[in-house]
Design a protein that fits this description.
The complex is a heterodimer of chains A (about 210) and B (about 260). Helices cover about 35% and strands about 15% of the residues of chain A. Chain A has about 210 residues and is an alpha/beta fold. Chain A has one domain: Rossmann fold, CATH 3.40.50.300. Chain A has a 5-stranded parallel β-sheet with strand order 6-7-8-3-9, with helices on both faces. The longest helix of chain A is centred in the last third of the chain and has 17 residues. The longest helix of chain B is centred in the middle third of the chain and has 32 residues. Chain B folds into 2 domains: about 60 residues, no CATH class; about 180 residues, no CATH class. In chain B, about 30% of the residues are buried. With about 260 residues, chain B is mainly alpha-helical. In chain B, helix 5 runs antiparallel to helix 10. Classes of the chains: A alpha/beta (about 210), B mainly alpha (about 260). The interface between A and B is medium-sized, with 31 and 19 residues.
């Protein structure tokens, strides 16, 4: 498949298969790592080619359901406001078909004390916000977890903690994880397979 | 001047104040002399032309000519607001629809409820005020909506990623855009009479009307405007926000138009 963003081709003639377990996607910035994640939960569509999920074309599935089954944790903190509990239960507010959120369970799986549920989400540190976003995604009980640079905004100690949380998640439940990172060492620590994207397409080429 | 009628001589005399403005602009090197003169000439030409048109419509007493004039105001308002709302995809038809509907509903209600008779003398000035204020509210709300969407891309996509529909994801932005469009008029309505005397009331007082009569007319206008501005902005932002998303609830990959 091929995908453009902002008029620039960021993924070209990509043909990959992501299996169960943990897969890391590495490559320099601009290589289309984030775009790939957005294609996997249909926040974007490829300009040519298709994305199959369990053998079915994503375009044939309900996009909102796809996003609940393949939950994305974005790179930058994007919290919706209110308490951490509201945050973790947000998906259920949007759709009655979303699972009843297990707020405390999701928080502890994301490595946060369940007491966080009553805290205001705009008073969190970056690391805490990252974990709340992880808990929010886990509350969807997804089959696939899409992580976009989950530790890029964190210091080494906070990074180690998140990595530890992620490793626990992988072993605890059969969750397919796609991890985007620019850190090859992290890819090696967290994933069993690595997909390498390169910046083959310089800016300017392939413009609309 | 007697009983509100102004002669051309009196009009000429008041240009002294424009001359003061031009002199001050030159004195303090503000460099607005040309703009000031252009403003004076344009206001004279535009308002005189409008005066002749309205006089002709008054003489004909044709409701169709009134509708034609109001339609022309809507068209011009659509064009003006559309340029301000350049960041909203497909803005022109949306603005045309919002402005027409808000104006038609407001004027229709005023006439049906018997507040004003459906004659040119009432429909033209009230229509003009309604369309003008609705146009501003639409322009402000859509301009703000475009800014909000471009600034909050991350938040929007994070919300969509949780399985929210585009409408759920954009609720907060739409509300903020509506607030920015409504607040100026609400504030103006709150402070009216304390800081400034509103235009219609000034006109009636100068023309010799009783103060309380002028107040009642002004209140009718202000309260009607609250309704029409709210309708116009809600319709425009509801339809305008849709254009930022695909039917599959994806944020469109839009390039920001040059400002």
């Amino acid at each position: 498949m091929t995908a453009k963003r902002g008029g620039r081709i960021v993924l070209e003639a990509l043909d990959i298969e992501i299996g169960e377990g943990a897969t890391a996607v590495v490559g320099p910035s601009g290589a289309g790592k984030s775009t790939l994640l957005r294609l996997l939960n249909r926040l974007a569509d490829p300009d040519s080619g298709r994305v199959l999920f369990g053998g079915r074309d994503l375009r044939d599935l309900d996009p909102l359901e796809v996003r609940r089954r393949a939950a994305l944790v974005p790179q930058l903190p994007a919290l919706l406001g209110g308490t951490v509990g509201d945050e973790v239960g947000a998906a259920r507010r949007f759709c009655r078909q979303a699972p009843e959120p297990d707020v405390e369970g999701s928080l502890s799986r994301a490595g946060l004390d369940p007491g966080y549920a009553t805290r205001r989400s705009d008073r969190l540190s970056v690391g805490e916000a990252q974990r709340v976003m992880l808990a929010r995604a886990l509350a969807l009980e997804p089959e696939v977890l899409l992580l976009d640079e989950p530790t890029s905004a964190l210091d080494a100690a906070a990074r180690d903690e998140i990595e530890w949380t992620l490793q626990n998640l992988e072993t605890e439940r059969s969750l397919t994880v796609v991890l985007v990172t620019h850190d090859r060492a992290q890819a090696k620590r967290l994933a069993t397979r690595t997909i390498e994207l390169s910046t083959a397409i310089p800016a300017g080429e392939g413009s609309r | 001047m007697i009983g509100g009628a102004v002669t051309l001589t009196e009009l000429g005399v008041i240009l002294i104040l424009v001359a003061v403005a031009i002199a001050l602009s030159r004195y303090r090197s503000v460099d607005l002399e040309r703009d000031l003169m252009l403003a004076v000439v344009r206001s004279f030409v535009q308002l005189s032309a409008l005066g002749y048109v309205i006089q002709a419509i008054f003489d004909s007493e044709s409701i169709w000519l009134v509708c034609l004039l109001l339609a022309a105001m809507v068209a011009f308002g659509t064009f003006t607001a559309g340029r301000r709302a350049a960041s909203v995809p497909g803005q022109y038809p949306i603005i045309l629809f919002a402005l027409s509907l808000a104006a038609a509903l407001t004027l229709g209600l005023i006439v049906v409820l018997g507040v004003f008779p459906p004659t040119p003398r009432y429909l033209i000035p009230v229509g003009g005020i309604v369309i003008g204020n609705s146009m501003t509210a639409i322009a402000v709300s859509l301009d703000r909506l475009g800014d909000e969407v471009h600034r909050a891309t991350g938040e929007l996509e994070a919300t969509l990623a949780l399985g929210a529909t585009w409408r759920q994801a954009s609720t907060g932005l739409v509300a903020r855009s509506l607030r920015s469009a409504m607040i100026p008029l609400i504030d103006q309505t709150k402070t009216t009479g304390l800081v400034t005397l509103p235009g219609a009331m000034v006109g009636m007082l100068v023309a010799g009307a009783e103060p309380l009569e002028a107040v009642r007319l002004q209140l009718i206008l202000l309260w009607s405007l609250l309704g029409s501005v709210a309708m116009a902005a809600v319709i425009a932002t509801s339809l305008g926000s849709r254009g930022f998303f695909t039917p599959a609830h994806q944020l469109r990959d839009l390039e920001r138009p040059a400002e």
